[in-house]
Amino acid sequence: xxxxxxxxxxxxxxxxxxxxxxxxxxxxxxxxxxxxxxxxxxxxxxxxxxxxxxxxxxxxxxxxxxxxxxxxxxxxxxxxxxxxxxxxxxxxxxxxxxxxxxxxxxxxxxxxxxxxxxxxxxxxxxxxxxxxxxxxxxxxxxxxxxxxxxxxxxxxxxxxxxxxxxxxxxxxxxxxxxxxxxxxxxxxxxxxxxxxxxxxxxxxxxxxxxxxxxxxxxxxxxxxxxxxxxxxxxxxxxxxxxxxxxxxxxxxxxxxxxxxxxxxxxxxxxxxxxxxxxxxxxxxxxxxxxxxxxxxxxxxxxxxxxxxxxxxxxxxxxxxxxxxxxxxxxxxxxxxxxxxxxxxxxxxxxxxxxxxxxxxxxxxxxxxxxxxxxxxxxxxxxxxxxxxxxxxxxxxxxxxxxxxxxxxxxxxxxxxxxxxxxxxxxxxxxxxxxxxxxxxxxxxxxxxxxxxxxxxxxxxxxxxxxxxxxxxxxxxxxxxxxxxxxxxxxxxxxxxxxxxxxxxxxxxxxxxxxxxxxxxxxxxxxxxxxxxxxxxxxxxxxxxxxxxxxxxxxxxxxxxxxxxxxxxxxxxxxxxxxxxxxxxxxxxxxxxxxxxxxxxxxxxxxxxxxxxxxxxxxxxxxxxxxxxxxxxxxxxxxxxxxxxxxxxxxxxxxxxxxxxxxxxxxxxxxxxxxxxxxxxxxxxx
Amino acid sequence: xxxxxxxxxxxxxxxxxxxxxxxxxxxxxxxxxxxxxxxxxxxxxxxxxxxxxxxxxxxxxxxxxxxxxxxxxxxxxxxxxxxxxxxxxxxxxxxxxxxxxxxxxxxxxxxxxxxxxxxxxxxxxxxxxxxxxxxxxxxxxxxxxxxxxxxxxxxxxxxxxxxxxxxxxxxxxxxxxx
Lengths: 685, 178
Description:
The complex is a heterodimer of chains A (685) and B (178).
Chain A: H1 5-8, H2 13-20, H3 27-36, E1 37-39, E2 45-47, H4 55-70, H5 77-114, E3 118-121, E4 124-126, E5 131-134, E6 136-140, E7 148-152, E8 155-159, H6 161-165, E9 169-177, E10 179-181, H7 202-209, H8 221-228, H9 234-275, H10 284-343, H11 354-389, E11 416-424, E12 430-439, H12 442-445, E13 449-457, E14 460-468, E15 478-491, E16 500-515, E17 521-530, E18 533-536, H13 542-553, E19 556-566, E20 569-577, H14 578-586, H15 588-670
Parallel strand pairs in A: 9-11
Antiparallel strand pairs in A: 1-2, 3-6, 4-5, 5-8, 6-7, 7-10, 8-9, 11-12, 12-13, 13-14, 14-15, 15-16, 16-17, 16-18, 17-19, 19-20
Helix pairs in contact in A: 5-11, 7-11, 8-15, 9-10, 9-15, 10-15, 13-14
Chain B: H1 2-14, H2 19-34, H3 39-51, H4 56-72, H5 74-85, H6 91-98, H7 111-148, H8 150-157, H9 159-172
């Protein structure tokens, strides 16, 4: 047929206008088409069936029919259908691949947080129902790749659908049955390119693990002095005194030599003056000559006298300082003796604690494990913060990016938040636990993550509770509390302590550990080892027998410890036990005797170390005394010279006066008449 | 690409394409150009155009034309957006919107986005009707005069030109009017 089917139909006038002509916007085409449609007998319009259009007309009609169809409606039906098909494909893809995608996403998230291989099996993700479940999940231990950090059996999680629409992954509850940890792996759980595991936990506590019980039988006094020498006050006091006395001695020697020189210089004029015979001075000229000699010698001897006085004061000062330095040194020595004696004291303190010797290793190891777990938990939480809650880096600002106007946010949610996580084991031993508010943005949640767990297996009960707080203002990052009852413990020091190889028994314990910002930690523990069983190795002496007797007879051993550690310093572990008192009582006589010997040895060892410095100081002090004696002679000589010259001058002056008087008397006697005693009165005018 | 769009828009102007389609294409191009800074709103608007019968060539040419205009008008958009976003009467509405799921991803709280969105929506009808009127004006007043002009007729009858027009027309689906 030559006319398109659209135009072969017959239309009412209204339909023709609406369905055909109104859809041809170009007037010339519309007029052309309107001319083709003729009104029939039935009142309908149609193209003459007998019309035989030319090739050009057929082409035009075809084009117009196409335009009429294209101008129908405003929606692109084929594209809408295609979009619907695409949507259906996406929906199909979701149903087919949702579990695969969710599994991969969860595995990637866990691997980022725990830095080790993670594996999820039996994933069932329901986006619209906001539910996720899996049959098995395992996360490897980063530091021990052939072990799993934990495994979760069948688990079901309820998500917050509203939060999902805001792209926030908020888990209302997770319930997991059959939780396990520290299980073996068949393949390595290390991630490709992961750094080599660091030694953790006990490594930090190794220092504290060294047994000090050996001190009781063999205190290395020399080593102790060697170790403590830098901390002692007396070596420093001796050195200070030596330096001061040396300086004083040098100054004294210099001044003494100068005085000698001055004596030598002054002794010439003074000698000449001394040689003058006063009796031989008969004339005023002789007096004047003697006085001139005295005046010439006087400044030198006066300066000599002043120098002698100065030297005397200097010597007095040096002697006084030497006495004070000696006193200070004696006091420092006394303090140091006391310090060394305290270090070797056996009557108290931790250095000879039997409990420390027996339990330090076990406590260190256990604390190390818990410290390691605490640090691991903190690290995982921090990874979570970085991965999920990290603040997005602001994009570099260019011109006219506008400003973001902040509006109040109601119910601000973190990007990732597990509100409740409950887990338990499927079979004995029974483990149940609960964790709350696990999130990467704890400041938004406004509270720390809390957790509790309990373990029960026959007689053994163990309870754990704590919190992890990574909020900015947090003063404690983690606080872990542990309670045990009937927990089997075997404390075995690296080498037998007083022939005791190990101590076993059920432990009742209550411990608390805090991890502080900056990596420091502290805590305390109180516990009791019930009905301890003692294993002995080899044959011991009186002390060993006594210690064994005390231990094997004890029904209960109470242990108390305080511990702290921090970056750049080892573990400070202060551990005491009821054993110590019992053992101390039994060993009191022996301990006193040993203590006395040790103190004497320590004092002697310290004296040996200080002898050289003390002897040097004593020599210097003697040197100052000697200088004092020598200078004393010089000062006497200077004094004698000075007083001799002064005396001689006075004698010369006296002689001069005598000679004047004699001359006056002889002149009066030689006069012809005496001068009247009273002059005649002068007449008045 | 722009040459192809120009050819397509010439085809649309000279064929029985509805003037509204060209007008809508122009208006959506204008809106997309002014929605700078919000990929979410642009994707949303583009998705809408995918299902509507609009002239894509007009959209793309309009987008190309208005992008520099929008860039130059950015300071004004920033001021306008800031004014709208800080209107006390609208604070409740914006706060509610800001707390709704997914809506914050449109970045409507950005002054440039809000200014562009407001300008785009406010001027959309004007651009639409203006574009439509221009198409009608062209078809009623200009098109026939050009087609009937002796110079055009002479030019199109040239052997080489007529062949090229025929071939291009076939390739591009040009109607016989050309």
